[in-house]
Amino acid sequence: MAYSSLEAGGTGDVYVASFPSFAAKRKVSTGGGYAPLWAKNGKELFYVTRDGSYFSAEIRTSPSLTAGTPKLLFKGSALRGDSTFAVSGDGQRFLLVEPVAEAGVEQPGIHLVLNWAEGLK
């Protein structure tokens, strides 16, 4: 099981633990992290830091639970509370939530009209 926690203090870190016993637990992140996401093969864990850096760490479960040294994959934008991202099955492509405009610059909005047929009467 992978999770993020404030148990070590600071802004939070990513951990892996044996499930369901939690008998073995390892800290994965080295400089904070959250939103852990397993690779499809179950041998790699992805996570993101508050500054928008995306990391990957190898996870082994046999003969014991171990976490490899995290590797920086790339830097995105600093996150503002949204940790949504997805990884392709082969671990080579990421889908991220990224801002599209500069701060303070207003962008055109989307207008959603509900019950529009009623307005035609």
Poorly predicted regions: none
Distance between the termini: 56 Å
Radius of gyration: 19 Å
**In percent terms, what proportion of residues is strand?**
35-45%
Number of strands: 10
Largest sheet: 5 strands, antiparallel
Secondary structural class = mainly beta
Q: Helical region count? A: 0
Shape: elongated
Helicity range = under 10%
The helix/strand order is EEEEEEEEEE
Provide the residue-averaged pLDDT. Answer: 84
Summary keywords:
10 strands; 121 residues; elongated; three-stranded antiparallel sheet
Q: What can you see in these coordinates?
A:
The termini are far apart. The model has no long low-confidence stretch (mean pLDDT 84). By secondary structure, the protein is mainly β. Helices cover 0% and strands 36% of the residues.
The gist of it:
By secondary structure, the chain is mostly beta strands. The chain is built from no helices and ten strands.
SSE diagram, text form:
Elements lengths: L1 E4 L7 E5 L7 E3 L6 E5 L5 E5 L4 E8 L5 E2 L3 E5 L9 E3 L6 E3 L25
Antiparallel strand pairs: 1-2, 2-3, 4-5, 5-6, 6-7, 6-8, 9-10
